[in-house]
Amino acid sequence: MNKMTVPEIMEMKKRGDKVVMVTAYDAGTARIVDDAGVDIILVGDSLGNVIQGMPNTLSVTVDEMVYHTKLVSRGAQNAHICADMPFMSYQLSTQEAVKNASRFIKESGAGSVKLETTEDFLDTIYEIQKIGIPVMGHIGLRPQDVHKMGGYKIQGRDKDDAQKLKELAKKAEDAGAYAIVIESIPRRLAAEITDSIRIPTIGIGAGPECDGQVLVINDLVGLSPEPMPKFVKKYANVRETMENATKDFISEVRQGTFPAEAHSYD
Q1: Full set of structural domains in the chain with CATH
Q2: Contact assessment for residue 180 and residue 172, using Cβ atoms and an 8 Å cutoff
Q3: Residues annotated as catalytic (active site), given as ranges
Q4: pTM over 0.85, yes/no
Q5: Axis-axis angle for helices 159-175, 122-130 (nearest 10)
Q6: What is the mean pLDDT of residues 159-188?
Q7: What angle do CA 60, 61, 65 make, to 5 degrees?
Q8: Whole-angstrom distance, CA of residue 59 vs CA of residue 75
Q9: Among 106, 130, 149, 169, which residue carries the largest CB count within 10 Å?
Q10: What is the DSSP letter of 191?
């Protein structure tokens, strides 16, 4: 199988094929989800929460994102790699945004970048994609605006806000975005947005009518601690498996039954 490309991702919407994106942060995990057959691996700035144990994503740096994207690129042979542009990597100026976006392509092996999208950053999307770097948009709940939004709240329930999100999605498409993440908005609104634009929508907490779905791998396999958001479905309970395995190891070490003859050298 060849590396998934941006044109192939866009073509999936035309065919009615659902896009599957999983967020991962290291080579080993990337290899697993790549072998499983995901279309896109997102290296999310959610590593601030998931890997670094921070309360939000705001402290994540460009250097950290480039590093983790490089790890994921080493592990994935087939999936398209999209890297999140972290807080303050694109907000200062379009020139700074282009410079930082180019680092992901030159240094980390990413095939595209994602940035949280408002009216203020439509020109940024345009300028980045103009130089040949594909851009994925991101509307609805924007974690980098957690303070402005007053927390992680559902967006677009108000009629005016819903209309603004529909207009923003279209403007992001017109600016050159190849796909757009829609996070934590009502299902009906996500369906309307999906039907109104030609590029794929990838939902997270936005219902099944989106053109694709994304989950963080730690949430998907049950490695994250409870409670988890309503939109998460645990397909396994790896956290419990790891905890029980560790308890068994502790018990056998203390009882002197590990290492046994089979685990020792003559």
Answers
A1: 6-235 (3.20.20.60), 237-266 (no CATH)
A2: yes
A3: 183
A4: yes
A5: 20
A6: 98
A7: 90
A8: 25
A9: 169
A10: H
